[in-house]
Amino acid sequence: MRFLIVTGMSGAGKSTVLKFLEDVGYFCVDNLPPGLISKFAELCEASSDIENVALGIDIRGGKLFRDLFGCISELKSETTKFEVLFMDSSDEVLLKRYKETRRSHPLARGDLATVGIKRERELLRDIKQRSDYIIDTSHMLTRHLRAHLGEMFVENKKFDSLVITVMSFGFKYGIPHDADLVFDVRFLPNPFYVAELKTHTGNDVAVRDFVMQFEEAKTFLDMLNKMLEFLIPNYIKEGKNQLVIAIGCTGGKHRSVTFANDVCANLKKSGHSAVIAHRDIDKDSKR
User: Fold this and answer.
1) What does the longest C-alpha to C-alpha distance in the chain come to?
2) Backbone phi, psi, residue 115, to 5°
3) pLDDT value at position 287?
4) What pLDDT, in 10s, does the model give residues 109-123?
5) 124/194 same-domain check
6) Residue 48 counted as domain residue
7) Is 252 found in the same domain as 112?
8) I need a surface site. Which of 186, 203, 204, 275 has the fewest CB within 10 A?
9) What angle do CA 221, 222, 228 make, to 5 degrees?
């Protein structure tokens, strides 16, 4: 039996994870007091009808949540297939999600959501370090998260602890503040000045063909992919779990989109967990 505890930052996607796991046959329980985990595990193991279990546990349990650390240590020694999945996201994204839903953070206690997020991150620091899996959803769409979960818990593929976001952007809107690596493709001819391509994007075949017809583009893409092949294993070795590769052109619609798509596809082909994000592709769409 696979026994999974889903925990992490409030607003990082725990509910989405539990819904997905339930859909694929896991027996899911949300917000079970940590002190009952050991007994609950015994009951599940004694049942012939339960193959996989997922528990959603977070700071909603209040003081009871602190019992989770002791329960994890106990279960680690008793249950060989016991695992912890930690859901994370950047403070900025979490704050944005709280503003959009108009919900208050469970640890804010009348303060700003930023205060609650800080308190929660401090409380979860130890459990994050003990987790078997860490998924950062800062740049993940729901469909990307579900696909990633499917690879991990349905197809049982080897977990790649580093989730890579390949992001296209426009320099005129500013460099993404959370980018780890930034690449500039403004040295290439701009499809914006080709009448029939101006209103299209790098997601269109005609634009991609235009950009990639130049030897400079082919050479740069090859060099970029080779550099990432060198860097990524070293990032994983150092324990990094989120990497944002930002590729920019002037407006973030043509050249950067083309390159981001190709780089992301190559990373996936190489077996890495990669998602695509086009930050500025819809801006100034009425030009």
Assistant:
1) 69
2) -70, -45
3) 43
4) 778 889 999 999 998
5) no
6) yes
7) no
8) 186
9) 85
State the total domains in the chain.
Answer: 2
Between the alpha carbon of residue 161 and those of residues 61, 131, 135, 164, 241, the distances in Å are: 27, 11, 8, 10, 5
- 126 plus 185 within the same structural domain: no
Which residue positions in the chain have pLDDT lower than 50? 79-80, 286-287
Vertex 123: Cα angle to 120 and 128 (nearest 5):
100
Q: Domain check: are 133 and 15 in the same one?
A: yes
Structure-block tokens of residue 196: 């029939």
SS3 label, residue 217: helix
- Are 175 and 221 within one domain? yes
Total residue count of the chain as it appears in this document: 287
Task: Find the domain containing 142 and state its range.
Answer: 2-153
pLDDT of residue 109: 76
Name the 3-class secondary structure at 203: coil
Using a pLDDT cut of 90, give the percent of the chain over it.
Answer: 53
